[in-house]
Amino acid sequence: xxxxxxxxxxxxxxxxxxxxxxxxxxxxxxxxxxxxxxxxxxxxxxxxxxxxxxxxxxxxxxxxxxxxxxxxxxxxxxxxxxxxxxxxxxxxxxxxxxxxxxxxxxxxxxxxxxxxxxxxxxxxxxxxxxxxxxxxxxxxxxxxxxxxxxxxxxxxxxxxxxxxxxxxxxxxxxxxxxxxxxxxxxxxxxxxxxxxxxxxxxxxxxxxxxxxxxxxxxxxxxxxxxxxxxxxxxxxxxxxxxxxxxxxxxxxxxxxxxxxxxxxxxxxxxxxxxxxxxxxxxxxxxxxxxxxxxxxxxxxxxxxxxxxx
Length: 309
Prior knowledge:
Keywords: Coiled coil, Membrane, Transmembrane, Transmembrane helix. By secondary structure, the chain is α+β, with helices and mostly antiparallel strands. The protein has helices at 3-8, 18-24, 29-40, 45-119, 122-135, 171-183, 230-235, 238-250; strands at 140-150, 155-156, 163-164, 188-191, 194-195, 202-205, 208-211, 214-216, 220-225, 253-264.
């Protein structure tokens, strides 16, 4: 570097405020020197023409590749549409077969119940029906409450005009409502016709809400059969208060109403995983009173695990 270059090279002054100085002189002196040398000694014309030629060739190749990809996409679209249509048809066929099998299972279950009641005494049959109603294995009928939840309607963005996704009902909302109904005295609860039991689960799977591994879609209706004070006690619960706040802020639909003569279906038969025979009573000593083995149990409300927003 010559003395003249050193004299003309700007000197960076480092002020105490480094950020102010950095914004004032953002370019490093080395870049300024390189730009000055290019102005004094410009590159040959053939180099500039070569750079332009390479740029044009690259653009042509990219355009050709994009055209080939677009053409290939158009050619593959009929095949994808046909595959999608085939999958939709298979899903509908499987749904129809599942509904038919469910109806057949209900008919067979009713027939088994009739045969069982005929084989049992009246008192034993009545006690068994009460146990089935309490555990969710039997259909129940009575007055109660229906809680309705629905997604908020979609709205358009004020700036772009694009659609904004609505506030959706979460699985934890259904969990909270079901648990609050149990706490309010509900004797039987069902979500969109799916009866809840002590082993019921309410969870998310992708975009769907599953109740006992069966998908349910909105609007969601949580029906419960119970005493006349159930509606008042539910509306005073923390879950109902939270849902009212969410509905006011997001536009989500939430309503509670009393319903007469509700009918809740029975839950699917549970799968038996293991069983053990009862313990035989010990023989009583002679001359003494025999102690019959008592069965102790804990009565719990069949509510799924709760969650919050």
